[in-house]
Amino acid sequence: MDSQQITAPSRAPSRVRGSVTPPSGVVHINSRHTSRFTVVGNHLTQHRELSLTAIGLAAHIQSLPTGAKIGIRFLADRFPESEPRIAAALRELEAHGYVRRTRERLPSGQAVTCTVLYNQPSSDAARTAAPKPQPGPELSPSHTASRHPAATMPPTPAPSPAPAQPPMPEPTPAPEPRPNAEASALTPAPQPRAHPRPPLPQPQVPDLDRHRAAVAVLADLRRHEPRLLLAENDIHRLAPAVAAWLERDAHPDAVRHTLTTDLPEPLRQPAGLLAHRLITHLPPPLPAAPTPVSAPRPHPLQDCGGCDRLFRAPEPGRCRDCRTAVPEAA
Known about the structure:
Blueprint lengths: L41 H4 L6 H11 L9 H7 L4 H13 L3 E7 L5 E7 L3 H9 L6 H12 L30 H9 L21 H12 L1 H4 L7 H16 L4 H9 L9 H11 L20 E3 L6 E3 L7 H10 L1
Antiparallel strand pairs: 1-2, 3-4
Helix pairs in contact: 2-4, 8-10, 10-12
């Protein structure tokens, strides 16, 4: 009876196994994803030189399907970051080899931006840098000589054929274009433009009422075609071109029909398409209207001095009957 019996624990058990003190860092509670997930490498999420905006933007682009819209304006509408901040993040990704953007022109004349995303840019860099170590065979004799000093004495005449290999340095010019290839992998090469785009047409005589009508035509396009929702800056930029159409006696309905019919699919840059059509479909000025040929005016009415009848004649006098009756009476 003098032995102590412990029937209850001295304290409630802790939910954290091991140490009672909770850890100060992050605690991961992971669940297995079976659908709707994207694999992102730690080389991106833990990058030392990329900003958080660039890392998050790269992770978001990797989660999108092929062909999704990733324009700066579209991303600015989708996220709270501004357009300059998103543009700076894209430049960071380009500088580190995660994104490559090129400008290409379609057969219709429209210029589009093609964006390529690399989820592992280090492999691409290693692929371009792999062919560099070409002078490796020249180093092999030195390594063998250092490892086996005794064996270096007999092969002393062997280096004599080495002078026959000076033609080998001829391929050395090949590495010169490689820096350009590496730079092209990081920065998009400028695409040559076959023909520079002509400027937007301008009205010959500025007219405030005509300019207001042009602004109204551009702002009203979205009622006829929802995809032609233009920004206010684009409307003010394109308004002088529409005013030039109106100056050439083009009806506003004709201008609207030209800008809203036969739109391409998909429509990525509505303002650029409208500018192209306003330039290429500009109607010629109407020819001067021919001056109407006035009909000869009839002679005024005169009062006959013989019979008081009215007749037409250039000067007052007698009518035809009175003039013929006078010779007969004579």
